[in-house]
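This part of the workshop introduces the protein records we will be handling. A record pairs a protein's sequence with a compact description of its fold. Comparing a sequence with its tokens is the quickest way to learn the format. The record below serves as our worked example for the rest of this section:
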Amino acid sequence: MTDAGGEIVLGRPRVHLRRTGSTNDCARQLAISGAPHGTLITASEQTAGRGRQGRHWTAPAGSSLLASLLLRSPPPLLPLIAAVAVCDIAGDDAQIKWPNDVVLVSSKTLRKLAGILTEGRPQEGWAVLGIGLNVAVRLEQLPDGLRAGAASMGKSEAEIEPALERLLEALERRLQEPAQATLEAWRARDALRGRMVTWAAGRGCAEGIDGEGRLIVALDAGGYTTLDAGEVHLELPGQ
């Protein structure tokens, strides 16, 4: 979204913190206090960063783009829009694991490059969009339990700020597109389509997303179902 002069407004005003618990928490407090659309919180380090399903987001200090953006009157497909915008700057190899994890595919394994978490108060007309992107993470610095499932852009720390600028530009552009354009761009990056997936209640083959961003799954027993929330896992050969 742009101002009357056509200039990008996302990222203004901006608060940058050397160290914080969670940029999303900071942005939520600012939203409640009446901060304007486009307000941006960034940090060099998070001590309590989190992702979907309550998972902890871990990154060495100064290695990642850690940002939360306040959006007033957010569109329904915001999580999908954000994933597509991250892919825009992450490169041609970046794909999306439903609904909005940005991944790289390596030996049929999905390695997470970026996580996206949207939170807010729909009844009050605002949302906080949190994005963590591994711009300069050195995988050997990560704990053993995270290393195998992580990916990095492999850039230098000096590239984090330029990456943020490109991301804001991509978000600005994508937020102005119609929903159909978002869905088509998302489908072009779909990492699960044609793959076997499992979730808490079943198993099947991922068949893309519908017009509301729900995952379509062809069930083993026949027929289809759609998933609009929860976690799905890629089923690897031999499992």
